[in-house]
Amino acid sequence: MRGKINRISITSIVFHLVLSIFSLFCIIPIIYIVSISLTDENSLSLYGYKLVPKLVSTYAYQFVFASPKQVLTSYGVTILVTAIGSILSLLVTSMLAYTMSRRDFKLSKLISFVVFFTMIFNTGLVPWYILIVRYYHINNTLLCLILPYVIVPWNVFLMKGFLADIPLALVESAKIDGSSELNTFFKIIIPISKPALATVGLFCAFMYWNDWWLGMLFIEKQSLTPLQLMLYSIMNNITYLSSSLQSGNISIDVSKMPNETARMAMCVLAAGPMLFVFPFFQKFFIRGLTVGAVKG
Asked: Does residue 177 sit in helix, strand or coil?
C-alpha cells in the first residue's frame, strides 16, 4: 500500500513538474514582450532581448499615444464592435446550430450541408466587396465590421456538436407542457448550454477584437478606424521610415524612432485586454471545447 502511494506521489510530482515547465514556456514570451516594450531602443540594439530591461523607457508607448484621442477612439470602436458583434454572432450561431441539431427537423441535413459547403467554398473577395459596397452600402459604418463575421461555419458546427447531445425528450416534454419553440430555446436550451456558449462567444470576441482586414477594406473615416487597423498603420509607417533611412531615401532624423519596442508596445495594447478577459471564461471554455471535440 505504501509503495502504491509512493508511486502515485512520484507520478503526481513529475506530472506537475512537466506542466509547470510548459506553463513557463507560455508565460516567458509574454514577459519578454512587456519587457521589450519598456526597453530603450538603443539599449535593445546593444544588449539584445532581456527579461529585465537594461534601461527602462516608456518612449515606445509615448510614440504610440502621440495622438491619444485617435487611440481612445479606436479602442472605443473595437470594444463596441466586439461587444455587439459577439452577442449577435452568438445568438445567430446558437439558433442556427440548434436548428441543425434537431433530428426531428426535416431540413436539418440540408441546412448542415449548406453551412458546410460555405466553409469549403466561397465566392471570392471581389463579389463580396461589391456586395458590401454597391448593394448594401454599409461601408464606412459599424455594420461592415460586424455583419461579415456574424455566421462562421466553424463556430456553428462547434455549437452543433454540443447541442446535438441534448436529449430530444427534453424538447418533447416542453412541447407537451405547451412551450413554444422560442420559449424552449431561450428558457431550456440556452441555460444548459453555457459551456458551449462561453466557448463560441470567446472565439467570436477574439475574432472581432483582432480583426483589421475589414477596416482596411471598408473604412475610410478615422472616427471608425478599429484599434488593430490603427496599430497596423503605425507599424507600416515605422517600417517604411526605417527602411527609407537605411537606404538613404530620406534626410530627416528618425534614428530615435522606436522600432522593435514599438512593435511590442502595440502587442501589449492589442492583446492586453483579452488576456484579462480569458481567465474568467477558462472553466467554461475548456468544458465547451472538450464536448464540441468529442461530439462534433
From this structure: coil
Give the residue from 85, 89, 75, 87 showing the smallest Cα distance to 224: 75
3-state secondary structure of 287: helix
Of 185, 141, 126, 162, which is closest to residue 284 (Cα–Cα)?
162
Would you say 86 and 205 are in contact if contact means Cβ atoms under 8 Å apart? Answer: yes
Give 20-74 pLDDT, tens digit per residue. Answer: 898 888 888 888 888 888 888 787 777 777 788 888 888 888 888 877 888 889 9
What is the rounded distance in angstroms from the CA atom of residue 102 to the CA atom of residue 172? 11
Q: Which three cell numbers stand for residue 225?
A: 478606424
- Full-model pTM: 0.80
Q: SS3 for 199-268, per residue?
A: HHHHHHHHHHHHCCHHHHHHCCCHHHCCHHHHHHHHHHHHHHHHHHHHHCCCCCCCCCCCCHHHHHHHHH
Architecture of domain 64-295: Orthogonal Bundle (1.10)
Closest of 241, 200, 203, 270 to residue 30, by C-alpha:
270
Pull the grid cell for residue 160: 452543433
Residue 292: which pLDDT band, with cuts at 50, 70 and 90?
A: very low
Q: How far apart are CA 129 and CA 217, in angstroms?
A: 8
- For every residue of 20-43, DSSP letters joined together read HHHHHHHHHHHHHHHHHHTB-HHH
Average pLDDT of span 153-158? 91
CA-wise closest residue to 206 among 129, 281, 95, 131: 281
* Burial bucket for residue 284 (CB in 10 Å: 0-12, 13-18, 19+): middle
Three-class secondary structure of residue 138 per DSSP = coil
